[in-house]
């Protein structure tokens, strides 16, 4: 059979949804090191037995809920590629705006050698993308999950940023000073995309991607557990005028603005994503 037929038959047998058809082609191409144009050329060429077995297996994994990125081992984010594997949350496109916003702030403040902290750094995508955008910025990512920390460190080596981006295993809900004491009152930007899915939304979020780790999603009954800790500690780590920048869930924005005010952060505001929903919140330490 030609490759086009192999893919079509595998999709049919696995009962892949239509939106995942493109994912299977992407996985096949990535597994062979092919570009999109390479794949298109090969679709009408005979497929050997090895690739037929691979396509069947990949189609079933996608049908079972595995993200395509788990099958390739990589996820594209901003202008870089980071490693991911089972146990690591795949970075989402909407999180790329955190990199843009943090980078714009550093540029506007004219602090080319700025220090940034990425709390709940996950795959390391935000930390690495920010450092890639701004060549003199140093970034430290704090993440509890050892698999995510391992992937982050491997990605830093892959993209040549291991000298400016460091990943530390630590718990945002515990004492940051154990891991980040050197950065007290020295940090220009704290950025975080923490677990924020509240209890009433957890099942739909899990159902949409059941293989990804629930611990990377669940933010407690109210969704506010991590925000409360991060906002309460922010002024201890930010320099005067430094920025706290968060990705948030819609419906949490007013609670987060209230926390900004309670803990002395100024200029608190939220901004929407491309769908018009509250997605980002920011505030600054007083000068």
From TrEMBL:
Keywords: Methyltransferase, S-adenosyl-L-methionine, Transferase
Upper taxonomic lineage: Bacteria, Pseudomonadati, Caldisericota/Cryosericota group, Candidatus Cryosericota, Candidatus Cryosericia
Catalytic activity: L-glutaminyl-[peptide chain release factor] + S-adenosyl-L-methionine = N(5)-methyl-L-glutaminyl-[peptide chain release factor] + S-adenosyl-L-homocysteine + H(+)
Protein name: peptide chain release factor N(5)-glutamine methyltransferase
Domain (Methyltransferase small): residue spans on this chain: 115-201
One Pfam family named in its UniProt record: PrmC_N
Record GO terms (molecular function): nucleic acid binding; peptide chain release factor N(5)-glutamine methyltransferase activity
Entry EC number(s): 2.1.1.297
GO biological process: methylation
SUPFAM superfamilies reported in the protein's UniProt record: S-adenosyl-L-methionine-dependent methyltransferases
Limits of the Release factor glutamine methyltransferase N-terminal domain: 6-73
InterPro entries listed in its UniProt record: DNA_methylase_N6_adenine_CS, HemK-like, N5-glutamine_MTase, PrmC_N, SAM-dependent_MTases_sf, Small_mtfrase_dom
């Amino acid at each position: 059979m030609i490759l086009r037929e192999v893919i079509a038959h595998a999709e049919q047998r696995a009962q892949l949804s239509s939106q995942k058809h493109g994912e299977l082609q992407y996985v096949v191409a990535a597994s062979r090191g092919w570009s999109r144009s390479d794949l298109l050329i090969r679709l009408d060429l005979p497929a050997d037995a090895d690739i037929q077995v691979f396509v069947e297996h990949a189609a079933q994994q996608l049908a079972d809920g595995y993200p395509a990125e788990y099958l390739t081992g990589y996820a594209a984010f901003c202008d870089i590629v980071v490693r991911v594997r089972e146990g690591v949350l795949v970075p989402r496109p909407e999180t790329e705006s955190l990199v843009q916003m943090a980078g714009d702030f550093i540029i506007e403040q004219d602090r080319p050698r700025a220090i940034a902290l990425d709390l709940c750094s996950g795959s390391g995508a935000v930390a690495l993308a920010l450092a890639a955008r701004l060549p003199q910025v140093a970034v430290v990512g704090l993440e509890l999950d050892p698999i995510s920390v391992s992937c982050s460190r491997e990605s830093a080596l892959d993209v040549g940023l291991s000298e400016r981006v460091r990943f530390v295993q630590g718990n945002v809900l515990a004492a940051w000073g154990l891991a980040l004491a050197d950065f007290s009152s020295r940090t220009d930007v704290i950025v975080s995309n923490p677990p924020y899915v509240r209890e009433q939304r957890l099942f739909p979020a899990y159902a949409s991607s059941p293989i990804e780790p629930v611990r990377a999603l669940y933010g407690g009954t109210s969704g506010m557990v991590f925000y409360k800790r991060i906002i309460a500690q922010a002024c201890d780590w930010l320099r005067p005028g430094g920025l706290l920048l968060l990705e948030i869930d819609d419906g949490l924005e007013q609670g987060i603005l209230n926390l900004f005010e309670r803990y002395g952060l100024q200029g608190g505001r939220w901004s929407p994503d491309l769908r018009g929903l509250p997605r980002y919140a920011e505030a600054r330490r007083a000068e």
